[in-house]
Design goal:
Layout: H1 2-26, H2 42-68, H3 72-85, H4 87-96, H5 100-115, H6 124-127, H7 137-143, E1 151-154, E2 158-161, H8 162-173, H9 177-180, H10 183-203, H11 205-212, H12 218-234
Antiparallel strand pairs: 1-2
């Protein structure tokens, strides 16, 4: 009975969080007429950016340098496992967006890689053409018509918008893997996701360094890169040919 009561309370708490978050997203800050960027929180954002930059310099960059010299035979399974544990959330978001095809692809990827791929360490699904349909709750909100809102930089998570910040919260609270995975699986999944950040930092070392340490204004450069990439990915405002972000489509400037 106690477990049932606790589960009921948890479910209601999560529901309240979702409704509150969606309400917050619906009230996203409107852009100032004529402003180049919708960034009314720039002073606070720059303070958070300085914190994230210090975190990168102290932890992420050294971790990336270490990961860059590790043979891919060891780092690839870590990235594969981290990607695999994130698939249930992508399946749920795909369904919420009405993307049945994408949800089906991610479901098949998860089933194949979890079984044949030994828990997700290997990617046999990719070998047969089932590539990941990346999505998140921020995209779900965009599909539902929620406006982008103001640009914000989140501690640890990095560049975002009001809408995407709500998406991050919901994705963290409502990870479907928490309902079906064991305690050990969840612990391994968290560890793999953290390790994957270091691997990604090492893979895109030059790009991250050019933004954070070689540009005249790393905050403005990170804001530009994030907004252009995100809007392009969501199909909201494709950049002009002369403005296309020079960074890889695989790079999302966050978590530094």
């Amino acid at each position: 009975m106690d477990k049932l009561l606790l589960r009921t309370i948890t479910t209601h708490f999560r529901a309240v969080c979702v409704l509150s978050a969606i309400a917050a997203a619906a009230a996203c800050t409107a852009p100032t007429p004529g402003a180049e960027y919708n960034d009314p929180f720039e002073e606070t954002n720059r303070a958070v950016h300085a914190f994230n930059k210090g975190l990168d310099q102290a932890i992420l960059r050294p971790a990336g340098q270490a990961a860059a010299v590790v043979p891919v035979e060891f780092t690839t399974p870590v990235v594969n496992f981290a990607d695999n544990v994130g698939l249930p959330g992508m399946v749920a978001n795909g369904l919420l967006q009405g993307d049945i095809g994408g949800s089906a692809t991610n479901t098949m990827r998860f089933l194949i890689n979890t079984t044949v791929g030994i828990g997700g360490l290997f990617d046999p699904a990719g070998a047969i053409g089932l590539t990941e349909e990346t999505t998140d709750f921020g995209e779900t909100l965009a599909v539902w018509g929620v406006p982008e809102g103001a640009y914000v930089e989140l501690p640890v998570f990095g560049p975002s918008t009001e809408r995407d910040a709500v998406g991050v919260i919901i994705d963290l609270i409502f990870d479907p893997l928490q309902s079906v995975g064991t305690g050990a699986q969840l612990d391994y999944g968290t560890a793999a996701r953290v390790a994957s950040l270091g691997v990604d930092r090492g893979t895109f070392m030059d790009t991250f360094d050019s933004v954070l340490y070689e540009s005249a204004d790393s905050y403005a450069q990170a804001r530009l890169a994030y907004l252009q990439n995100r809007r392009f990915d969501l199909g909201e405002a494709p950049p002009a040919v002369s403005e296309i972000d020079p960074f890889s489509d695989d790079l999302s400037i966050e978590g530094f």
